[in-house]
Amino acid sequence: MGDQETKKLFERLSQTVVPTHYDLTIQPYVDTFKFNGEVTIHIQVREPTDTVILYAADLQVDNAKIVSKSKDELNGKIELDEENERLKISFDKKLEKNDYQLSMKFAGDITNRMVGFYRNQYTTPDGTVRYGASTQFEPADCRRAFPCWDEPNFKATFDITLITPKDLRAISNMPIKSENEFAENKEWKVTKFDRTPIMSTYLVAFVIGEYDYVETKDSNGVSMRVYTPLGKKEHGNFALETASKVLPFYAEYFKIKYPIAKADQIAIPDFAMGAMENWGVITYRETALLIDPKLSAMSARQRVAIVVAHELAHQWFGNLVTMDWWTDLWLNEGFASWIEYLAVDKCYPEFDIWTQFVADAFSEFLTPDALKSSHPIEIPIGHPAEIDEIFDAISYHKGSSVIRMLHDYIGDDAFRKGLHTYLTEYSYKNTITLNLWSHLAKASGKPVADVMSTWTLQMGYPLVTVHEEQQANKTRTIKLTQQRFIADGSSDDDNLQWKIPITIFTKSNPKSIAKQILMDKPEMTVTLENISEDDWIKLNYNSIGLYRVKYEPKTLARLNEPIANKTLSPQDRLMVQNDVAALCNAGHQSFVDCLKLLLSYKDEDNFTVWKSIASTIGDLSSLIEYTEYFNQYKKYRLNLFSSIQKKLGWNATANEDPLVAMLRPIILTIRGKSGDQEVIDEANKRFQQHVNGNLIDPNIRGAVYNIASRYGNENTQEQLRKLYKEAVMNEEKNRLLNAMGQSSNPAIIESTLQFVFEGDNVRMQDIYVGVIGCVSSRIGRDIVWKFLQNKWTTIVERYGEKSSFLTTFVECCLSGFVDDKTASEIQSFFDSANTPIVTRAVKQVVETIQMRSKVLKRDSKAIEEYLSQY
Ligand code: BES
Ligand code: ZN
User: Fold this and answer.
1) What is the domain partition of the chain in residue ranges?
2) 588 in a known ligand binding site
3) Which residue of 156, 158, 394, 420 has the smallest Cβ count within 10 Å?
4) Which CATH number fits domain 321-456: 1.10.390.10, 3.90.1150.10, 4.10.910.10, 1.10.10.10?
5) Element (DSSP H or E) covering residue 41
6) Which atom, in ligand 1's list, is nearest to the CA of 340?
7) Is 467 one of the annotated binding-site residues?
8) CATH match of 19-210 with 3.30.980.10
9) Local confidence band at 8 (pLDDT 50, 70, 90 cut-offs)
10) Which tens digits make up the pLDDT trace of 595-633?
């Protein structure tokens, strides 16, 4: 969507009429999936006008009436501009500058689209299927629930009333003020909620349905509940415990109290994303909130802790202080994606979460941001439909990495101080990125905006090349150069430059920084002291700076030693191989170098380093899978992962390190996929025992399912499907769903796709999980691509043409190909598919495939030769 020509002409609402307060009543019918509503909006007319324009979409609106302070009434004429989702109300007399109340009645459908006010399907413990309803308004779907000024800088207060059947719970942002029988129908009740703080429309929420809950108060007396499906309230305990620690942590970190009397979290049965930070009532996908103390994997706990910490951060950063327009969404999301780590580190130090940041956030943005089709963090957004473009790895992962670099640059004290004054100044207001920079600059005395703008206003990041110039008398002179790193190795026509905080450290003092400079030129020479001839040197201490490093062969070779003896921190160890792999992809060096380097990690013991290596190995596998020497490569993998597998085995030990519990399945999966017969036999054995009721440890269950599926037959599939249907927890369902398509039998993959897409086996929110399983192999990828082409129209109809799920399908299914022919097939298919939402994803996929194709052409011979020893 990024291209100028596809951008819709768009104008924001005028500030001549602004809302200050909404009195909103909604009456939903979860049997007919309809709702009725009434709203009275207190408005200020700031310039005389005879029209009022606000938003409404997919609503029938009637009876618009305006009442002045002196109780004069005027009826308005309503026009709905469907294309622009706007409601124009015209009066036959000018409204003078004053305060008024604008009232409307409206009605709409409770859809199944997972946006606006939509329905949820759930099954009660006795097996009956029932429906509830909930909201998802960010970025611009509040207008599907009631007419409103649906832009983030029209903040107002809200008095919400819900009229619902008596047996359903009614939950909203604020505590319940009153609950009474509905005068018109005894079976219904009227729930009124306290007035909200001054806030944006995208944060309004209400939920109707049957829920259980667990509750507590945090150390500041805020009431906290976690709402769960009926009969599963203990699955809310972990999130509740996390939230009750994290909320006071933030109140203290920001030195601003949480402004609402309650902070609820609720697991919604049908939910498009991971979670949504509605003020006072955060909504979650079930897997992002619920933990079964017996059945959940450690990785699921960690995920819940992260998501909870992220959404709670938004209660200040986003809800109290809100971006002026979607252009600054990155600030919300980048900041929350950084501080979630700070909070989890405080509450669960055992996850060593900051190390994981490097693998899960830092290195995850480096890949897409190296594409020519990337975009800057700060990107002008016109129409809110363009938001999908920035709800991506760049906003989240580059955004959080930029904040981490900045935090390191100015230090925690100045960072907190600046944050506090910023949040205080803009409380209940709106803001832009520059305002944060100026508060942080003031607190630190450093040129924050100046340094940050090179990172947020231009796309990409630099590759710093290190050239050793001279070594004499224990000093070494090195020359550094910077240029944009581009994934396929092409040079940067725009010649972008950055202000790079560079750190250098060396063998003589491996735990402290020897040199720290701000590189603000294309080239710099640095002299290092106290350094002997063979001493290693390394740039980017703990991988905090946003750059990759390219060393000369001898400089790189010296790093084998501190990698093998683990003198380098895990963050540094993992990035050395990650950088080298990226440089190989780009053709700066041969992939043989990468394969050789990886062998220095054979005795690695750190979870995060292994996770990152596994990802390098996985990327490479999906290339080599297309060659004749894939079997040799499997043997190489067996060799690389042999000692760690021996060490970990199959069974958890008592009080095991949680990171070991998370590492074991990664190693087992790779060993299994590489053809380790012992692992395959054991997995099959355990799978059969599991089917017969001897349950597998949840931490390795996903790995066992994957291996059993890969080497299994129709019967295995039947068993997986049966387990899927019987599973109660979504986490368990996802493990099974992901395993199904990993079969090596094309017929089974085809039938998995049927299972996943057809009938009501799988919720719309989970379909992509099944599809991702199918693209884990070369044959699977072909089958899925054919399937997508055949079914695209149906898929688009089902999800809606604006659904971000469409982007997910493109991104997850198609980037594994390696030939230019498929790349152009993909391009031309989507050129004529008329689904603009996927335009950028398609570009990125095509560019990725072209890069992969180049790699194979360039390095295949050499890799084959190297691997022939296996
Ligand atoms: N505010 C977002 C959700 C969102 C963003 C909705 C943009 C619509 C447009 C929420 O805070 C979020 O970031 N959710 C993440 C999970 C989080 C832990 C990274 C998600 O849903 O993936
Ligand atoms: Zn967020």
Assistant:
1) 19-210, 321-456, 462-573
2) no
3) 420
4) 1.10.390.10
5) strand 34-45
6) 18
7) no
8) no
9) low
10) 999 999 999 999 999 999 999 999 999 999 999 999 999
